[in-house]
Structures are given as structure tokens and as C-alpha cells.
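[SOLVED] Need 3D model of a two-part complex

Original post:
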Amino acid sequence: MSKTFYASKVEELDEIAKSLIKVFKNKKKIVFFGEMGVGKTTLIKSICKVLNVQDIVTSPTFSVVNEYQTINGEVVYHFDFYRIKNQEELFDLGLEEYIYSDNYCFVEWPEKAEELLGNDFVQISITKNKDYRIIKTHL
Amino acid sequence: MNKEIIILGIESSCDDTSAAILNGRKILSNVVANQEIHKQYGGVVPELASRAHQQNIIPVVDAAIRKANIKKEEINAIAFTNGPGLLGSLLVGSSFAKSFAIGMDIPLIAINHMQAHILAHFIDEEKNIPEFPFLCLTVSGGHTQIVKVESPNNMQIIGTTLDDAAGEAFDKSAKILGLPYPGGPLIDKHAKNGNIHAFTFGKPKIKNLDFSFSGLKTSILYKIQDGVKENPNFIKENLESLCASIQHSIVNVLIEKLQLAIKKTGIKQIAIAGGVSANSYLRNRLDVLSKTANFDLYIPKFEYCTDNAAMIAIAGYFKYLDKDFSQQSISPSARLFF
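Solution:
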């Protein structure tokens, strides 16, 4: 199943995030494909807002993983594999423990760890044309 | 040696393992794991971060103690990075520190990495140290903050990034320009002969003391993509001016927020910290501003700008004075606030 959303400005992302969470149903592992600057972190910001995350959602490019908490104390993991060189680094980081936890895991630049992530993940791809961003989910 | 309080500091929050020994505020040794240490122990530096920390930690501590020319029995307390950072990496440092504290029967002191960056100003320096309260602009690959520092153990974040860190803006711009990662220092280098006004990019619209670099990054990306579309040699022909303009735009954001923070707080003691504080253009701009806006500027030595254990040890020293010790039950946290 796939579903497509269009956003012409950043303010529209919160509504799209609400719809996305409905599409996810009980799936909590989501990967985000898209080139630099297309808005992966920005979309995750909106999704976290809808999930009532209390922390500031920032880019985890340097930290590799950010951990946030929702108002109910649920944990959300936000990954970015941009600067990962090989999959072994992710084993060392304890990636499996994060993934097999019961928490939301949002992953940017998942291309670096496709084998590790397997097929259980909901895929979101973001592309852009001149006027808007195209957000596609593949379940 | 005039023996004061001797602190062993351990830093393992990210890529490098480091150990340092301080006598009071005076540094006796500051060792970062490198090939040299591994040669002495017959190994090589593994590529993998937390496994590397496990292999590094004992050689590094041993080297720090030898270099300081002390006996381990002389150490009064051990300080370690408790976060923020990569959990796997933090655990190596915290486990070692706890074991060492039990084994030697000395206090254990947990340190916030971001506070330690600020306290690095107090290492070794006798005269040129900021007076309290002061403002610190902490800029690195993972963080961009303005912190109001009331005392060594009392500080608050008054501005922070809402998306990307300043260092990330540098590194990702470098990537767009085809420079190797991390390319921040290369931008600094190429910018030296470029025109800072050759290109203009979108400015963030955040009103308060918080930062945003994500929009700027996207604006840089589009401008360069458009340029390459018209002229395949666009980057090559304009590299110096592109670097200068990008650097100018990023530094402008930092300077504007710092000026606003000075205005809002009335504090005229200004310090910078973190890896990006090594950027020469940022240093020049701050230097000029300190004269026109009439504030005292404090820039730490280069080796204390990036991650290091000496800053963990100095933060430990201040906590030792307050007898602010940690229990063995403490566990490191990837997300740690202050």
C-alpha cells in the first residue's frame, strides 16, 4: 500500500504528520529517504509534535541518535546515518537494542544500513519539485 | 610539585577516548587515544567507536598517569562524561570510572559534556579567565548554544538550535561543494581569499535567542544546484567566494544572536567554546565586535576547543570543591540537560 501527500509550505506538515501516524497504525519503525535539504528532519519534527514530544527535535547528524520523550514519558529515537561509514559501526552503537525496543524509531539516511533494518520498516520518501514536497509512504 | 586536588578526567562521549590529570586547575597530562599509544600497546586504532573506546580506555588512562608523573594513589577523585553523547561510548567511560572509584576508594563525579566545554576556559589560566556571570557561545558539530554562566556549577541555556548545529551547517555545505567530510575547516581555509558578499543566502527568521540553520543549508544547496545547472564549472570557478559567503552567512547568525543575548542580559563577559570556535573568521568577527560593542572576549586554547578530557577534569575539580559527588547507581544518558 502506498499513499502520497503534497506540501507547498512547512505549516502544512503538521496535518500530514497526523495522517501519517494513522497510516503507520501500530508500526513504530519508520525510515525516511530523500536528498539533503528536502525536509526529512523537518517532517520528523512535525511527527514528533503530533506525538507530543516535549524536547526540541534537532538534526542527529552529529550525534547519530537523539532520544526524546513524549508528555506521557514514551521514548522516541531519532537516527541519522549520514556520517556512518559501515554497518558495523551501527552494531557497536547498539542499534539492534533500539530497533527491537517498543519505541518509535525514525531513521534518516537509512541507505547506510539497509540489511540491518530489514523489511519491517515503514518507508517514507520525500522528493521535491519547483513548488512543493512530495511525501510518499510505502507500507 | 605543589600538590592540590588531583582529578583524573575521562571523556568518551563520541569518537575519541581521552584521559587527563589536573592538579588544581593546572594540567599535568591530557592524552587522546591515537596510533602512538596503540603502538606502545602493540595494536592499531580500531575504526569502530565504542569498541575502540573499550580498547583505548586503559592504555589512555595509563598514559595520562605516567605522563603526569604521579602515582594513581595520589588521585583524589575521578570525573567522567555522563552525557550527552552516544550511549555505547558513554557506558565505556562510566563503567571504567565507577570501577576505578571503587578500586581506589575515591569519589566519583559525573560531568555534563556541554558544561565541561564551557569550563575549559579555566584550565591552566591564572589571569585571563572570564568573570561571573558570563555568556558562552558553544558551537560544535552537534550543538549550538548560548549559555548564561552564573558560577562553575550553575549555568542555564538561554538559546539553542531548533534544527541543525552550526558545525553541521559548515560540514554539509562543504559536502555540497564536494569537499570531504568533515569539511568545516576546509571552508575556513578556502574562504580566506574569497569575497564574502559574492553570494547571499536565506536568513533564519527566529525571533528570540534560538538558532536555526536548516533553512540556510537548503538555501545554499539550491543556489549551488542552480549555479551548476547554468555552468558545470560553477563550484570550481567560485569555490573561494562560495566558501567565504557561506561562512559569512553562518557566522552572521551566530554574531546576531550573541549581540541580542548581550543586549538582553547586559552581560559583557563573553566566552566561546566547542570545535567551531576554532574557525578563524568567527574569531576575527568576535574580536572586532568586542571592540565596537565593548566587551571582554575569552577564547580557549585550541586543544581545549574540541572534545578532550582536560575539560572533564576541570569540571570535576569545581564539583569536588562543592563536594558534589555521584553514587555508583548513576547511569549515563544520551540526552542530558542542565
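Edit: The two ends of chain A are 6 Å apart (CA to CA).
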